[in-house]
Amino acid sequence: MNTMQLLQLSLDTASMRQQVYANNIANAETPNYKRQDVAFETYFQQALENAPQAKPGEYHIPIPALNGNSSTIPDVQPTIVTDETSKVDNNGNNVDLTSEMTNLAENQVRYNVLVQDVTDRLQRLRTAIQGS
Amino acid sequence: MFDSSSMNISASGLNANQLWMNVISNNIANANTTRTPQGGPYRREIVNFAPSSQPTSFQTVLGQTIGSQDGGVQVSSISQDTSPLKLVYDPTNPDAVNGYVQMPNVDISTEMVDMVTASRAYEANATAFDAGKQMEMTALSLGR
Q1: Which among A8, A24, A30, A109 is the top mutation candidate for probing chain B, defined by the most B β-carbons within 10 Å of its own β-carbon?
Q2: Fewer C-beta neighbours within 10 Å, C or N terminus of chain B?
Q3: pTM
């Protein structure tokens, strides 16, 4: 996976998270509904830590053109997990509207940052092509 | 993965809470209704929420087959509150039996609390809808 594909996957994750949080908010009053979340960054971090470390003098993130191999960015997919542990209301629902709204806002900012990053990368590419 | 977009999910939340609000308004409006077409005093109505699913729709079956699921919420049913009716002493009321009238089991303070809850839930869904819309608008600006 290269950086652009990783950014794409992160955008997909943010989009999926938006749907999951919207679903939690929509079901804030549904009896016995358990809130859901998307697990990605933690898994990705773990995979990065378990990945073989580069030795001194080696590229930490290989450049595909140099060695044709970019597999040190681990291939991790976002997964929807159900939160069974947090405090449960009288009606068996564990959605906390305040924290869902916070999650929603944070996710929106994260999405905007990712879009900005992709745009900047494409802009650099365009500059390199046009030479100005 | 979800089949419907986040805006569809939020829209289902808006619809469900709108309906809840209508039922609350109906309860408050009928807080003193002692004679209904079905006979007897008005009984408080309760909305029951359930996660959205349309088991008969082709889209759902296809979605389940390819490993996606529908998101959102729906009002699964509107049921009557079976709690006991209030007995009020009012011999002048034409519906009185032995001087006592059966009044609806609507408690105004409960309805007001529900109304605030429904209103806040509606606002939360509206905010989520807007956030989803903004994100899709941002996606349109990719690469510009």
Answers
A1: A30
A2: C
A3: 0.81
